[in-house]
Specification:
The protein is built from 5 helices and 7 strands, in the order E-H-H-H-E-E-E-H-E-H-E-E. By secondary structure, it is an alpha+beta fold.
Length: 180
């Protein structure tokens, strides 16, 4: 086992005191995996602390989980529930990122499990996500969590003039075959 990978990672919801670490993690995501995040590094740098605090503030509609190795934030995942009554049975997974030095130790799977369990606990029936068609590692992670592809958005992202398709995935939590 690689010694840089955490042995006992703690997963918890982020709070306003985590705003700087959250912004730093998002910036690393934009710089390391530009196809995996819609925001650019410049857009993330321009966000104020209060904007980052608002993004991670736990509400009835949103939560961001962080994976911690000691005090260090090493991974994140967000869950955003639809607010309109006719859409409130759905939520969106966003912002999944694990520090490249910490990958391969199951952190992303633990983060996903936390987000999915939270979705269940608030009565969400289906969880959606979008993943770049150029990211087979992330696609495999999501399939291992029970997500299935239901479509493709052609040219979902444009990165430096190059287009990348997005794969649309869903997990039906009210399906008896859905993983717990």
């Amino acid at each position: 086992m690689n010694e840089s990978k955490p042995v006992n990672t703690m997963i918890r919801p982020l709070n306003e005191q985590d705003a700087d670490a959250f912004q730093s993690m998002r910036l690393r995501a934009a710089e390391n995996d530009p196809q995996g995040i819609a925001s650019t590094a410049d857009e993330i740098r321009q966000l104020s602390r209060s904007q980052n605090e608002a993004r991670i503030r736990v509400t009835d509609e949103q939560i961001v989980f962080g994976a911690f190795d000691g005090d260090a934030l090493v991974g994140i995942v967000g869950l955003l529930r639809e607010v309109r009554q006719k859409l409130a049975h759905k939520a969106l997974i966003w912002g999944v990122f694990v520090d490249p030095a910490r990958r391969g130790g199951g952190i992303a799977k633990k983060l996903m499990a936390s987000a999915i369990e939270h979705a269940r606990s608030i009565g969400v029936l289906q969880v959606h996500l979008v993943v770049s068609a150029q990211n087979p590692r992330a696609q495999a992670l999501y399939r291992s969590c029970g997500f299935v592809r239901y479509g493709v958005e052609p040219r979902g992202l444009c990165i430096d003039g190059e287009y990348a398709d997005d794969e649309l995935m869903v997990l039906f939590l009210d399906d008896p075959a859905a993983p717990d």
